Amino acid sequence: MSNLLDEIGIAHIGYFVSNLDAAVKRMTMLYGLSGFEFTDYKPTRAWVRGKEIFDYHVKIATSSPDTSIRMELLQPLSESPMMDMLKNSANTISHIGHSVKNYEMYRDILLDRGCELLIEAEMEDNRLGYRRSCYCFDYVMQTIFEISEIPHFR
C-alpha cells in the first residue's frame, strides 16, 4: 500500500462555515493571514452520491498561496452533504485537500480503501481551464478527503 501523503502532500485544510466573512476575519486574526481569494463556485456539472444535481453553489475563501498549507473556508449555499454537516456542527474542520495531476487514480485509491464518494464536480472556464474535484468521506475517521485536479486547458 502506497503512502499517499508522501505522494500528494496536503494542499489545504478546509472548514465548512455558516458565515464566510466572519470566518475570514477570524482566520486573519488567528493566523495573520492576508490576501484571501474569493470564489463563487457553481460548477459546470456536479453529482451528490452519484446523482447529478443542477444547483450546487458554494462561496469559497482560500488563503493566499504564500503559506505552506492553505486554509479553505466554504459556505455552502445549496443543499448538499456539506450543508448537512454544517447543520450538525458549527464551523468545523471538514476536510483535507490534495491537488493532483492524475485525478481518477487518486479518487479511485480512496474509494478502493473504503471511502464513499459524496460529491464530484467538474468546472471549465477561460481563466483556469478544466478541472475536477471530489469529496470522499471516510466513516472511520469521520472526515472528508478532497481530491482536486490541477487545472489545465484541453
Descriptive account of the structure:
- 23% of the residues lie in helices and 42% in strands.
- By secondary structure, the protein is α+β, with helices and mostly antiparallel strands.
- The protein has a ten-stranded mixed sheet.
- The longest helix has 12 residues, at 20-31.
- It starts with a helix and ends in a 5-residue tail after the last strand.
Please give a quick description of this structure.
With 154 residues, this protein is of the alpha+beta class.
N→C terminal distance = 32 Å
What percentage of amino acids are in beta strands?
35-45%
CATH architecture: Roll
Give the proportion of residues in helices.
Answer: 10-25%
- How would a textbook summarize the main sheet? 10 strands, mixed
| Count of all domains | 1
User: Which term fits the overall shape?
Assistant: globular
What are the defining features of this structure?
4 helices; alpha+beta; 154 residues; 2,3-Dihydroxybiphenyl 1,2-Dioxygenase, domain 1
What layout of secondary structure does this protein have?
Elements: H1 4-8, E1 12-16, H2 20-31, E2 37-41, E3 45-48, E4 51-53, E5 58-62, E6 70-76, H3 81-88, E7 92-100, H4 103-112, E8 116-125, E9 129-138, E10 143-149
Parallel strand pairs: 1-6, 7-10
Antiparallel strand pairs: 1-7, 2-5, 3-4, 3-8, 5-6, 8-9, 9-10
